[in-house]
Amino acid sequence: MTKDLKNPPIDRIDGRMKVTGGAQYFADFELPNMAYCVIVGSEIGRGTIASIDTKKAQGAPGVLGVFTHQNMPPIPGWDAPVGGEADGPAPKPDTKEKYRILHTPKILFDGQPIAMVVADSYERATYAASLVKATYAKQAARTDLEKHLAEGIAPGRPGSSDYLRGKADGYQSAPVTLEANYTIPVEVHNPMELHGILAHWTGADSLMIYAKTQGVNATQNAMAEAFKIDPKKIHVHTEFMGGGFGMGLRTWPQETAVVAIAKKIGRPLKLVVTRNQMFTLVGHRPYTVQTINMGADTNGKLIGIAHAATAETASYEDFTEATVNMTKFMYECPNVSTRYRIVRLDRSVPIWMRGPGEATGAFALESAMDEMAHKLGLDPIEFRLRNYTETDPEHNRPYSSKNLKEAYQRGAEAIGWNKRQNQPASQREGDWLIGYGMSTGTFNAFRWEASARALLNADGSLTIQSAVTDIGPGTGTALTMIAHNVLGVPLNRIKVAYGDTSLPKAPTQGGSAIVSAVGSAVYDACTKIKNQLVELAIKDGSPLAGRQADELTLTDGVLFVEKEPEKKIVVSELMWTNNLTVVDKSADSKGGPELGKYSMYSFSVHFVQVRVNPLTGVVRVSKAVSVADSGRIISPKTAASQMIGGVAGGIGMALTEEAVIDHRFGRFVNNNLADYHVAVHADVPAIETIMIDKPDPIINPMGAKGMGEIALIGFAGAVANAVFNATGQRVRDLPITPDKLLRTV
Amino acid sequence: MNQHEHFGDELDSSDSSRRNFLKQSSALAALALTPAAANAAIHNGLDEKLAAAIEQLPLQVDINGTMQKLSIEPRVTLLDLLREQLHLTGTKKGCDHGQCGACTVHVDGQRVNSCLTLAMTTEGCKVTTIEGLGSVDQMHPMQEAFIKHDGFQCGYCTPGQIMSAVACIREGHANNPDEIREYMSGNICRCGAYANIVDAIMDVKQGGARV
Fold first, then answer.
1. E strand or H helix at A383, and its extent?
2. Can you tell me the ipTM of this complex?
3. A240, B155: Cβ pair inside 8 Å?
4. Is A187 marked active-site?
5. Which residues contact A540 (CB under 8 A, 6 or more apart)?
6. For A560-570, what is each residue's pLDDT tens digit?
7. Does the structural domain A288-446+596-743 have CATH classification 3.90.550.10?
C-alpha cells in the first residue's frame, strides 16, 4: 500500500441494504414455529421474592411457559443455585454476590427479571406477562453513590491501581492552585435497536443464534461455556446491528436464559426487550464523582495534578474503566497522582459506553485545564501548548505518532478561535451570550489479534471474509478500501462477508480497534495473494519472467512493470495459465514486539461555539469543529460520519443526558426516550470535521488508528468550557441544564 | 402504576369469563360433543382455537400497493402487523411508545408512528413502508441522497428517517436546514448522523425531484 496517498471518499458498502429496509437485524429474522419471550422485571431494588403467582399467566391464551426461579431450566455452565441468603448479613467488601438470572428469589436491582413469559405471539406474551404477580420481602436499596462515597474500594485489577509520579501532593506548593469536583450522572447507551436475541436449537447440542452483539465469536464462546457444548456447534449471526455504543460488549444473562428456555420448549425463541428495560438489563455509563487538584507556576507550567474518581458498580460484579488514565500521560507535569475507587450499590452492572471512562475523565481533566488557564489569564490552547509533551511521561517512551499541535491549530482556525474573548461573558448577539470552548481527547490505539480470508477469483472479483460485526462505523467499507489498496481490484468487484461465526475469527467490535486489527488481517491476506501472483508472474515462461518482485505493480487486474507499463500480464490470464480458479489466502495478524516500544494513542480536539440565553439558561451548541489525529484515514466518508456522531453524542452528554434514579425506590424515573433526552435533530448544528490524516508509522501496515472513542472523548468538556466563556459560570455537574446555570447566577 | 394494574385486572377477568363461558357451555355444546369429548377438546386446546377465531377481526388495507385481506387481533399495532405478520421488517421498533420515530410509515400520505397506530384503524387506508418507497434496483431520490450524504451509520433508524424526510418535503417543511431540524426531531438517530441527514434532505429538496 502506498502510505503517502490519501484515500478517496467512497459510499458505504451496505448503504443500499440500509436505505431500502433490506438489512436484516436480529429481530428481523423469522423462523418456523418461533415463539416470543417477554421479561417481567422486579418492582423493588433489593430484597427477596416472597411469592410469585404465574397461574393466570400460564392459563392465558397462547402461553407456552412461564419461567421463574422456581422452574427455570438449568444452565449447566453456571454455578448451582445460591438461594436462601437474602436475609443474611450484608456482603463483606471482599465477598461478591452472584447474579444468576431466575436462579434465586433474591433481588439485587430494580427491574431484575423475575419471570420470562413465552407465548406463540408477541401480543399474547406481553399480555400474559402483565398477569404475573409477585410479592416481596423488601430491603432498603442503596442506590445513591453520593451517599456512599466513603465506601469506595480499590478494585484489585491491573490498570486500576493507584498511580504516582513525583509527589502526590506536588500541586500544593504551586503558586496557582485549583481544586474542583466534577460529576457525571448515569448515562444509558440507548442504541435505536432494542436488545434481544433469537435462539434456535438445531439439534441436541447445536445452536443457531441471531444476536445483538458487538462480537459474534464472544457470544459463541459465552454460550459454549454456559451450555457446555462445542463452540463449533454454535452458529452466531450479526451482520447488521442497530448500534451498540458498548452495550453489546458482553453476553447478558437474559440472552443465556432465552437459549435455555428455547431448549426447554423445543421451539425457536425470540426476545426483544422494551425501551424501559434498556435502562436496567444492558448496562450504562456509571455515575462518577471526580476531584482534580492542580497546581501551576505563574508562567503556566504545570507543577502537579492529583485526579481521584469514584464510580458506582453493582453489588454482584465489579465494573472498572480507565477514568483517570488520560491524566497520567496527557501533559508534561512532574507530579501526578491518580486514584480510582468503586462503590458496590444495589444497581444493575454498568458497561463501557462510547469513549468509556476516558470520556468521563476527559470531562474533568479538560474542564480543570480550562479553569486553570482562566486563573492564569492564559488562552486555553496556549496553556495546553506550554505543557505539551512529545513523549509519554507515564511510560517514558515515544508516542508512535502525535500531531496534536497541528490539530489545535487547524481546529482553532476553523471555529474562528480568534473571535473568542479570554474574558468570560463579554460577547452577546441579541438576547444570546456567545462563548467558545475547546477540549482535547485521547484514547489508546490498539492492535489486537484478528484473522481474515481473501479469495481472488479468476473473473477478477475479490471476496473478503471476517467474523467481525459492523455496528455502524463502516467496518466493511474500510475493509473494502484496504483490500482495494493492496490488490487494485476495483471497489465494485470486492465483496466483504462479515458478522458470522462461520467466517475467520475476529475480536469484538470495540475499543476503536477494528480497522487496526481486522484491517491488518485483511491487508496481510491480500498481500499473500499479491505475493503469489507476483511469484507466478516472474517465473520462467511468463511474459514478465526474470523481473524482480518489487518492480511490479498490481492495479485493475493487471500486473505490470512500474517503469515500463507496456510490460504486463492480466491477472485472470495468469491464473488460468496456472490452472487457478481462485487464489485463497488466510492470515492471522497481530502486532510485533516493536509495538511495545511506543505509546500508541489517537488524539482529538473539539471546538464549540455556544449560545446561552441568560434569561432561560438554555444552551445551544451553534457551531462545532472536531479534529481527529488518528493516523491514515482509510474511509474518509464513514470516518467523518463517526466524528459527527461523536459530536451528537457529546452534545447529549454535555447538555441533556441523565438517567435519574428515585433513591426511595432505587428506580429510574425517566427510563424512556421521551424523558431521557438524547440529542435530536434540533440540538445538532452543522459540524465541520477535520482529519489530520497522517499515517502512524508503527501501529499497523495501513498506518491507521481508531476514531470511535475520540469522536466523543473531550466533547462535553469543550461545551462546559464554552458555557463558562459565554457566561462566566462554571458547571461541573453534567448535564449542563438550565436550572444549574440559573442557580449559579 | 395503579391505573395500569387496574386495567390489567379488568382484562384479566373478562378474559377468564370468556374462557369459562367457552368451557362451560354453548360453544362446545353447539358442536354436539359429549361431555367427555368436550373435556378432551378443552384438553387439546380446542377452546383456545375457538377463542382465537373469535378474537380475529377482518381488516382490508392497501400496503405498498397490494390490497391485504387480513384477519387480526384488534390489539395488534400497525408496526407489529407489518413486522411479525407481513414480513415487512424494514420498519423498525425502537421504543413502542412513539418517542423515537424508527417505525415511521405513511398512512394515506401522512407520516405516522406505526407503533402508536392500531392496525384496525387503517381499514381502507393506503400504507407505504420503506419497502414500498423504493427498492435496491430502483431507489427513491431520498434513498439515493441518504447514501450520497452518508445519512446513517448503523442503519436502524434509517427507514424511519427516510419516510419522515419524504413527508417533511411533501408537507412543505424542508425550506431550510433549521426548519428541517425542527420537523425531523421526532426521528432519533443515536449514531448521530443528523448533519448528514439534513444535507440529504436539502439536496433532494433543492434538486426538485418529485418525492
1. helix A380-386
2. 0.96
3. yes
4. no
5. none
6. 998 999 999 99
7. no
